[in-house]
Design a protein that fits this description.
Serine Threonine Protein Phosphatase 5, Tetratricopeptide repeat, mainly alpha, two-stranded antiparallel sheet
């Protein structure tokens, strides 16, 4: 009886271990092969299948610009523009050529970068004093500061 129980537990454990996907931390992650497979899937409009491969590449190599580029395309094609924008910004920080390609594919990305010197997360930045035009008084003259 005990042998059957132990055997059953071991078999269940074996099936569990076999069913758990390999983690990205494993040395066996072939980033190039995963990127190539994801590119093929994207070319076949199989974006749902390409996405987890790209996520695996990014988990293994966070600075892999091509993975962020392709993931931005996956998000675009699956109507997730906010996520696509985030991936575009990551791509732009890693590879300007790929970022330019994304902007050519979708002009939305041209609007994604914050305007320089206008706003930050904490609020608006005032223009330099010299850039502020003088204020006119009621008579049409310019007020002195």
């Amino acid at each position: 009886m005990k042998f059957a129980l132990v055997r059953g537990v071991l078999i269940a454990l074996l099936f569990y271990v076999a069913s758990v996907p390999l983690t990205v931390a494993d040395e066996g992650v072939n980033v190039g092969a995963l990127l190539e497979k994801a590119a093929t899937l994207c070319g076949e409009n199989r974006y749902a299948e390409a996405e987890p491969l790209l996520m695996q590449v990014i988990a293994a190599e966070p600075n892999e610009a091509e993975a962020h580029y392709r993931l931005a395309i996956v998000y675009l094609k699956t109507d997730r523009s906010a996520e696509a924008t985030q991936e575009y910004l990551k791509t732009a920080g890693l590879d300007e050529k790929l970022a330019r390609e994304l902007r050519m594919q979708n002009p939305m990305f041209s609007l994604s970068a914050p305007a320089k010197g206008v706003a930050t997360e904490s609020g608006f930045i005032a223009a330099p004093e010299s850039a502020i035009p003088p204020v006119s008084d009621a008579s049409g003259g310019v007020e002195a500061k």
